[in-house]
């Protein structure tokens, strides 16, 4: 048991399946009271029933107040997990870019806006952002996803550096491939880049709980991402050449 989690009031967005469902199950197993949010009400209700949680369906951007009431007036831990795997190039429709920005970034900003006043008053609160390795690196074939996940990472980083002396803990989870519906939907680029090292959603939950115990901001369920992130910073052009080789391999396989 992680004592920072037992009896805590937790919200997980996009928890009707995949990584969010694994996080919700793990928080419940550790003794937390969990709100299970998803746009898909039936999926949210199924996971909530399984873990004795509370389903709060709806758009992740709009559920903080409802979730707070459902949990008795206070949220201790908020997992901004819902995300859109928005693929495409610069030519992707305006709507695809707008939806990616809305779900992958602004839902986090709106949640923080609703949570921070109470958390700062109490001097504690924990914000968990499911970003992606694409937020530290970049995903071939997915410009809106890569750009907005960089935004989600930047926002989590900003929250952490701004409020860490006031009791606010922030974690940014940055996995590569995880075997969920989203990986299946990522198509041939996902097959090439992500599938070979894909892990299970439960592995992501394990990595988060290790990070919570160790008080770490950056959660890397695939440890090799630290090396790639370092290589990108140290030698950007060499890193871009390597990524471009993957792009060319992907183009050749189409
Ligand atoms: N699967 C991967 O390989 C992978 C890798 C890195 C990061 N991620 C990130 O992990 C998070 C979860 O993804 P997943 O792989 O579990 O995907 P998933 O598709 O299995 O689950 C995402 C869930 O979010 C819900 N959702 C979508 N938009 C929503 C909204 N506006 N409000 C509430 N719920 C909404 C969907 O209905 C779905 O149940 C995402 O942020 C994703 O970008 C996934």
From TrEMBL:
Keyword Oxidoreductase found: yes
Keywords noted in UniProt: Oxidoreductase
GO molecular function annotations of the record: oxidoreductase activity
Annotated Pfam families: adh_short
Transmembrane feature ranges: none
Similarity section: Belongs to the short-chain dehydrogenases/reductases (SDR) family.
Record's protein name: SDR family oxidoreductase
């Amino acid at each position: 048991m992680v004592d920072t989690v037992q009896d805590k009031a937790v919200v997980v967005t996009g928890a009707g399946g995949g990584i969010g469902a694994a996080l919700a199950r793990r928080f419940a197993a550790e003794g937390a009271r969990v709100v299970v949010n998803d746009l898909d009400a039936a999926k949210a209700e199924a996971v909530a029933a399984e873990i004795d949680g509370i389903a709060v369906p709806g758009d992740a951007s709009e559920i903080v107040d409802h979730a707070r009431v459902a949990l008795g007036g206070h949220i201790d831990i908020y997992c901004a997990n819902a995300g859109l795997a928005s693929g495409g190039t610069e030519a992707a429709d305006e709507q695809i870019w707008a939806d990616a920005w809305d779900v992958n970034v602004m839902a986090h900003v709106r949640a923080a806006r609703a949570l921070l006043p109470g958390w700062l008053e109490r001097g504690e609160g924990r914000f968990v952002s499911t970003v992606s390795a694409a937020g530290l690196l970049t995903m071939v074939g997915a410009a809106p996803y890569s750009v907005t996940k960089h935004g989600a990472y930047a926002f989590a980083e900003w929250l952490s550096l701004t409020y860490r002396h006031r009791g606010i803990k922030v974690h940014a989870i940055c996995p590569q491939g995880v075997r969920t519906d989203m990986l299946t939907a990522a198509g041939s680029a996902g097959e090439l880049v992500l599938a070979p090292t894909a892990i299970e959603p439960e592995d992501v939950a394990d990595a988060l709980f290790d990070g919570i115990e160790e008080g770490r901001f950056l959660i890397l369920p695939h440890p090799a991402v630290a090396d790639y992130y370092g290589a990108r910073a140290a030698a950007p052009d060499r890193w871009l050449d390597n990524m471009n080789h993957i792009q060319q391999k992907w183009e050749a396989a189409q």
